[in-house]
């Protein structure tokens, strides 16, 4: 007969696993809503006649809102219950998506979507910062690489579902119905998060003393911020330039754009699955530099490719994106103390947003005169130069 203590430990472990599974379910449904919002907004702006400059302006507003919200979201994640923050952010997005679904019936899509960007970007930053800070504690019993891979796998699976369903919804129905579907996804996400055990939410950040933990900015944090900035900007570039690339150069429609986003998401899922075996033979920091170099190469190749090779290229870009992104999260969580993790994540994200904001401003100014594939090529050159500099200045991690 098993001793009572053994039964208690087994029961606690079982509850911990169930809590982690509820967390993964929340991450998945939230990712569906978040990516559906970005994909639908970008496509609606393009087909309504506003073109790539409007899409760039949309993502510039998103970037400004995230830039302002990131430090606040990091501080809040280190100060308050991260589960509650996450659920509240998704509840706000549920209300917002429902309201904008109604507004799209009678209002100009341009101003409706641009106004929605502030609300969604702020809520999104709070939810993502809180969820990424939850991982080390809600995933107790797993290694950081395993827990992060599981979370990113479900996130990218949600993105894949969003890309497939959003393209189809936009093709067969109206933007109002598409936004209503997003609202349902956010409601489900908030509900799932309520089933995550509160005790799992990092005991280190409970109590008044935890906020006094200082965030030390050193060479490793700067390096991770730079890697994250290039990867984040590359991912956003797909969303900003992708609609125009499909419509203007590939002569495609909403379904084709959904396929492009699906290829990106499918590649991102594969990138998560490849991370686990690769980190056993290659250091994460080396893997990140290789990912940056190859990303530059495949962005450059988009200039000369046609469908279906473009879909293959975007799938590979998705693989490289997540190899680097998950590596950044693992290194950040393993080098920054738990009580300061939210602020560290906020600082790193700010670096990425700043680079993206500069890029989106340039795109908004010149997008009417430069083909989307040329924008991809220009970013590839910048990324290649950045990868060389980072390889020369790589700190010991």
Question: What does this protein structure show overall?
Answer:
The protein is an all-alpha fold and 397 residues long. 82% of the residues lie in helices and 0% in strands. The protein contains eleven helices and no strands. Helix 1 packs across helix 3 and helix 6 runs antiparallel to helix 7. The termini are far apart.
Quick structural gist:
The chain is mostly helical. The chain contains 11 helices and no strands. The radius of gyration is 20 Å and the shape is globular.
Order of secondary-structure elements: HHHHHHHHHHH
Mean pLDDT: 81
What is the number of strand segments? 0
Number of helical segments with 4 or more residues: 11
**N-to-C CA distance:** 47 Å
Main β-sheet, in a few words? none
Structural class: mainly alpha
The best one-word shape is globular
Helix content estimate: over 70%
How much beta, percentage-wise?
A: under 5%
Question: What does the radius of gyration come to?
Answer: 20 Å
Poorly predicted parts = 4-10, 199-212
Itemize the secondary structure elements and their pairings.
Blueprint: H1 4-79, H2 82-106, H3 109-138, H4 144-172, H5 175-193, H6 219-249, H7 254-278, H8 284-301, H9 309-335, H10 341-366, H11 372-392
Helix pairs in contact: 1-3, 1-4, 1-5, 1-6, 1-10, 2-3, 2-5, 3-10, 4-7, 4-9, 6-7, 6-8, 6-9, 6-10, 6-11, 7-9, 8-9, 8-11
